[in-house]
Amino acid sequence: MRKNTLQKRILTIVLLINTIILIPLILRKPPIKDWIIVYLFNAVTNIIIDTFLSTYKIVKYPVRLFPKTFKTHLLFDFFIYPTFTVFYNQITYKDKALKAFFKLIIITIPPFLIEVLAVKKTEFIVWSEKWKWYHTFFSIILKSSFTRLFIGIIRRLSILSS
């Protein structure tokens, strides 16, 4: 029970730190509208994907914020990963696809290693036998690439309509 309380405190601290990082990140450089779209698109699609994974018990979150309300990992789905995606889109804003892809692989490694550590050392995440480390790694790369493609299409459409 004590371990569980400590882990919930850690989640709360991570939420506060992420919020402190998120606000200046979204507001720091134009186009702010794009960063808000990226953030919201990522958060909404995260909850859809994570609901599926949680419902079929492919991934479980024994220790999470608001466990009676959400089966998914609210902190990761609505805060950490969308913030990561905004950052990625900002640093690759003017990059061509191949350069952006290589940057994505490089910046995905640290959060991926943190997740692997969390699986092994905490009760934040439990992977079923159907889920392996490479599913996480490649799904983050695929989803982040898709989000970047999505905002690129939005930009083109807004240029065409202007």
Describe this structure in words.
- The protein has one domain (2-161).
- The protein is globular and about 55 Å long.
- The mean pLDDT is 91.
- It is built from five helices and two strands.
- By secondary structure, the chain is mainly alpha-helical.
- Strands 1-2 form a two-stranded antiparallel sheet.
- One letter per element, helices H and strands E, the order comes to HHEHHEH
Biggest β-sheet: count, sense, barrel? 2 strands, antiparallel
Number of helices in the DSSP assignment: 5
What is the terminal-to-terminal distance?
58 Å
The neighbouring-strand order within the major sheet is 1-2
Query: What is the 3D shape?
Result: globular
Question: Please, what is the average pLDDT?
Answer: 91
Total count of domains: 1
Name some characteristics of this structure.
162 residues; 5 helices; mainly alpha; two-stranded antiparallel ribbon
Secondary structure blueprint with pairings:
Elements: H1 2-27, H2 32-55, E1 59-60, H3 74-91, H4 97-121, E2 126-127, H5 133-161
Antiparallel strand pairs: 1-2
Helix pairs in contact: 1-3, 2-3, 2-5, 4-5
Quick gist of this model?
This protein has 162 residues and is an all-alpha fold. It is 75% helix and 2% strand.
